[in-house]
C-alpha cells in the first residue's frame, strides 16, 4: 500500500529565508504527487502537481523517483505563506488519494 | 457548478447523541472521500467511495462511524453515541475520473463537530 511521510509537523522560518517542506513516499508504481495548502479559515486546496512542473506562488516541487521524494521549496518565504501544507499521492486507476499528516509552516516576520 | 458543499458547517451535540454530517460533491465526480482533522493534527482518512464499487472503510475509527452514498452523489457520515474525542473538523472531498485515474481532490469547507 502507498504511504506519504511528512517528517515535520511544524516548520518555522523567518521572512525572506528559504523554505523546504519535506515529503517522502512509498509506492511501487508510478504515482502522481501533489501539494495541497490550507490557509487559516479557508478550505484545503490544490497548490501544485508534479506533472505540471509549475511554480505557484513561488513554490516548486520536483519529483525525485530515486529518493522517492517530492519536497516543496520556495527561495524566499513570505508571511502569507503561513499555512498547513499536505503532500498527497495519487496512484493509478481507481485507488484513493493518500495524504501525508501535514506540515504547519510558520513564517516569522 | 458549485464546489463541494458540506452541512452543517458547525454542530454542537451532547455526548451519547447521534449526528449526521452531509456532503454534496461536485456534480459528475465519482470519487468521494471523508477525512477528519483534529485540533493541531493532520488529515485522518475515514472512508472512500468510488462509483458503484464497495467503499474503502479502512479508516473508520470504530463501529460507531458509518457512511453511505446514495445514488452515487450525496454522502452522509453518521457518528453514533458521540464521544468527546469525536470533536474535530470533518472534511469531505470529491474528484472525477479522467483517463482511468482520479483527478485532484476538491474539498468542502468542513463541518466542525463539538461534543460536549
Question: Could you list some keywords that capture this structure?
Answer:
heterodimer, A: 109 residues, mainly beta, 6-stranded mixed beta sheet, B: 116 residues, 0% helix
What would you note in describing this structure?
- The complex is a heterodimer of chains A (109) and B (116).
- In chain A, β9 (83-90) and β10 form a beta hairpin.
- Chain A has 109 residues and is mainly β.
- Chain A is built from no helices and 11 strands.
- By secondary structure, chain B is an all-beta fold.
- Helix content of chain B is 0%, strand content 49%.
- In chain B, the strands form 3 sheets. In chain B, strands 2, 4, 5, 8, 11 and 12 form a 6-stranded mixed sheet that branches. Chain B has a 4-stranded antiparallel sheet with strand order 1-3-7-6, with no helix packed on it. Chain B has a two-stranded antiparallel sheet with strand order 9-10.
- The interface between A and B is medium-sized, with 25 and 25 residues.
Topology:
The complex is a heterodimer of chains A (109) and B (116).
Chain A: E1 3-5, E2 10-14, E3 19-21, E4 24-26, E5 32-38, E6 45-49, E7 60-61, E8 72-74, E9 83-90, E10 98-99, E11 103-108
Parallel strand pairs in A: 2-11
Antiparallel strand pairs in A: 1-4, 3-8, 5-6, 5-9, 7-8, 9-10, 9-11
Chain B: E1 5-7, E2 10-13, E3 19-24, E4 31-37, E5 43-50, E6 65-69, E7 75-79, E8 88-95, E9 97-98, E10 101-102, E11 106-107, E12 111-115
Parallel strand pairs in B: 2-12
Antiparallel strand pairs in B: 1-3, 3-7, 4-5, 4-8, 6-7, 8-11, 8-12, 9-10
Amino acid at each position: 500500500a502507498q504511504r506519504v511521510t511528512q517528517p515535520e509537523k511544524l516548520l518555522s522560518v523567518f521572512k525572506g529565508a528559504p523554505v523546504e517542506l519535506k515529503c517522502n513516499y512509498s509506492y511501487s508504481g508510478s504515482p502522481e504527487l501533489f501539494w495541497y495548502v490550507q490557509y487559516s479559515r479557508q478550505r484545503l486546496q490544490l497548490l501544485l502537481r508534479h506533472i505540471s512542473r509549475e511554480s505557484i506562488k513561488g513554490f516548486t516541487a520536483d519529483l525525485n523517483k530515486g529518493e522517492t521524494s517530492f519536497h516543496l521549496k520556495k527561495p524566499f518565504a513570505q508571511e502569507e505563506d503561513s499555512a498547513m501544507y499536505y503532500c498527497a499521492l495519487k496512484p493509478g486507476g481507481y485507488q484513493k488519494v493518500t495524504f501525508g499528516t501535514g506540515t504547519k509552516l510558520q513564517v516569522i516576520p | 457548478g458549485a464546489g463541494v458543499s458540506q452541512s452543517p458547517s458547525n454542530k454542537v451535540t451532547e455526548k451519547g447523541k447521534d449526528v449526521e454530517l452531509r456532503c454534496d460533491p461536485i456534480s459528475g465526480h465519482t470519487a468521494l472521500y471523508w477525512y477528519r482533522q483534529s485540533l493541531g493534527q493532520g488529515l485522518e482518512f475515514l472512508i472512500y467511495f468510488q462509483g458503484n464499487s464497495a467503499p474503502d472503510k479502512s479508516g473508520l475509527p470504530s463501529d460507531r462511524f458509518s457512511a453511505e452514498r446514495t445514488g452515487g452523489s450525496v454522502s452522509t457520515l453518521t457518528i453514533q453515541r458521540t464521544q468527546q474525542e469525536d470533536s474535530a473538523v470533518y472534511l469531505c472531498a470529491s474528484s472525477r475520473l479522467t483517463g482511468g485515474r482520479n483527478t485532484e481532490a476538491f474539498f468542502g469547507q468542513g463541518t466542525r463537530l463539538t461534543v460536549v
